[in-house]
Write a structure and sequence with these properties.
Length: 563
């Protein structure tokens, strides 16, 4: 702005000097010409009087004594030059067509200014009609206005240079003084906005409404920016802490926003910035990319379940509109793996329960029909009744295990815990199972010390019983089963070790699932329901404990529980 003020002031000054000089030159030139004309007229009148008084007999004497810069010409009535002080009259053209000659003939006097080829300059001609009918013409060479202007041009340049120098200096001072209040507003704008201190700085009255409007607009903008920043921070915090993945894409499938959960679920590279990149850069799955294209094309929501690297992800894609024009899509990703596993377990549980219940019921119904139809011999009835009782007992045990497992799975807000000694519980169970172990020729033992914890007595009795019963079932004769009870870091440790058949490595991850049995044929011999270890796992989880299994086929198994 300071530069613009200086340039404008210089321009105005230059134009002003030029116009002023031109006006003065024009005025001076007019004054000069009027003075010259007056002098020539006076000279012409005097010369005419002399010629009249001398009866026109001494023309050469009177006109020959004139000033050297004045040219006198005597012209007869036909326009021929009788006498001329500058040239020989014989060589001169007829002057009857000259304006001054014509005017003098008609009016008594005449004048004209023209460029004279003879004198190579502007010349002023004044003609007077004499009493004898001849015309006396007086002429003087005069400078034209351009010559006058050029003659004073050096002076103009000197004046203009001086004026320009003064203008530059004055414009610098003036612009600095003009801009000082404006610069004060700029330098103190933040305090004006935050503290509204308009009275503390110098402001032009003309600028005051503008500054007040600017302050109000700035306050409004700052308030809106604070709201936008706060909302953006809230959205960023929400998105960052979401377990679900959230991705925004535009109508070209370029990523506008993605949270950490979305990056993790799609297993993207955390070191790569995916913003403004195509969605295919983070996930090349055909199904989801095709679903996004369909949503953007058909403007309707879509949902699907993806299987990515053994993980199941529920994907919901919804279009984003504005004025019925699609801008992009929102992609919501939810980890569906656990829920999928639960559903699969529920399906397997239903299938296994149906199968496990059907098997003994089929046997019971079959033998009952044989007895009812009278097809069984008397000596077979007792045997059939024994089978029916055994299958019924197995059915009752299965139902009882299912009921116990369901109770354990109930997520009660208040847990029924009490102070108990798990060593004494283990000792009681060892005593109860000693007869079974003796019949199978298995050495059953317990080692440890008194270990006091907070827990549910009934559940812990169930846990230890199932572990020992399972170990005895799958240990060959002359084998051993050992229960160890100890404490470590205020935790109770339960460890059951056997020298049984062991568990292959490929089955160890699933051994705690419901109804999971490694060898179905072996299950028939042991009369196992397949729920014992599942009950153990749920009891450990109920007590917020940990369970670990170490096993090697043919050498035995060790189950370590920390509660």
């Amino acid at each position: 702005m300071k530069k613009r003020i200086s340039l404008n002031l210089l321009l105005v000054t230059t134009i002003s000097v030029f116009l002023t000089t031109s006006l003065l030159v024009n005025i001076f030139y007019k004054f000069y010409m009027n003075k010259e004309k007056e002098n020539i007229r006076n000279y012409a009148d005097i010369a005419a009087n002399y010629l009249t008084l001398s009866n026109f007999n001494s023309i050469e004497e009177i006109l020959g004594n004139h000033n050297t810069d004045i040219r006198a010409t005597l012209i007869n009535q036909e326009g021929d030059v009788v006498f001329d002080t500058s040239r020989d009259d014989v060589d001169m053209d007829n002057h009857s067509n000259r304006p001054e000659f014509i005017q003098a003939t008609k009016n008594g006097t005449g004048e004209s200014i023209r460029y004279s080829t003879t004198l190579d300059s502007n010349t002023y001609y004044y003609a007077v009609l004499l009493s004898n009918g001849n015309i006396l013409r007086i002429a003087r060479e005069t400078d034209n206005i351009l010559s006058v202007f050029l003659s004073i041009l050096p002076g103009i340049f000197i004046i203009m240079s001086l004026v320009l120098f003064i203008s530059i200096y004055a414009s610098s001072l003036l612009s600095s003084k003009i801009l000082k209040p404006i610069n004060n507003i700029t330098d103190n704008m933040e305090s004006l906005i935050t503290k509204n201190q308009l009275d503390t700085i110098e402001i032009y009255d003309e600028l005051l409404p503008f500054v007040k409007t600017l302050v109000r607009q700035s306050e409004k903008i700052n308030s809106q920016l604070r709201d936008i920043t706060q909302k953006a921070d809230i959205m960023d915090t929400i998105m960052s802490n979401m377990n679900e993945g959230l991705i925004l894409v535009d109508n070209n499938r370029d990523i506008l926003s993605i949270n950490k959960s979305g990056l993790d679920l799609l297993q993207g590279n955390g070191q790569v910035d995916y913003i403004s990149k195509s969605f295919i850069n983070i996930c090349r799955n055909i199904e989801i990319n095709r679903a996004i294209d369909e949503v953007l094309k058909n403007k309707s929501s879509s949902e699907l379940i993806l299987n990515l690297n053994s993980n199941y992800i529920y994907v919901f894609i919804s279009p984003v509109f504005t004025n019925n024009e699609i801008l992009g899509a929102i992609i919501l990703l939810i980890d569906y793996t656990e829920k999928h596993k639960v559903e699969q377990m529920r399906k397997e549980f239903s299938s296994n329960v149906s199968h496990e219940l059907k098997t003994p019921l089929t046997s019971i119904n079959g033998y009952a029909e044989i007895i009812e139809g009278g097809m069984a011999k008397d000596e077979d009835v007792k045997n059939f009744a024994s089978i029916i009782r055994r299958e019924g007992t197995r059915l009752l045990n299965l139902i009882d295990s299912i009921i116990r497992l369901s109770k354990i799975e109930e997520n009660e807000p208040k847990k029924d815990f009490q102070t108990i000694d798990i060593y004494s519980i283990g000792q009681n169970i060892i005593d109860n199972l000693s007869l079974l172990a003796r019949d199978k020729k298995i050495h059953l033992s317990i080692v440890g010390e008194e270990t006091i914890i907070q827990g549910n007595r009934f559940m812990l009795e169930e846990l230890i019983y199932n572990l020992l019963d399972n170990a005895i079932k799958y240990t060959h004769a002359n084998g051993s089963v050992k229960l160890e009870i100890s404490s470590r870091n205020s935790h109770g440790i339960i460890k059951v070790t056997d020298t049984g058949v062991g568990i292959p490595i490929e089955h160890q991850d699933r051994i705690f699932e419901r109804f999971y049995i490694i060898d179905k044929s072996r299950n028939k011999k042991t009369q196992s329901t397949g729920l014992g270890l599942s009950i153990v796992k749920h009891i450990v989880e109920y007590h917020n404990g940990n369970i670990n299994l170490f096993s090697e086929p043919g050498k035995g198994t060790e189950v370590l529980i920390e509660i």
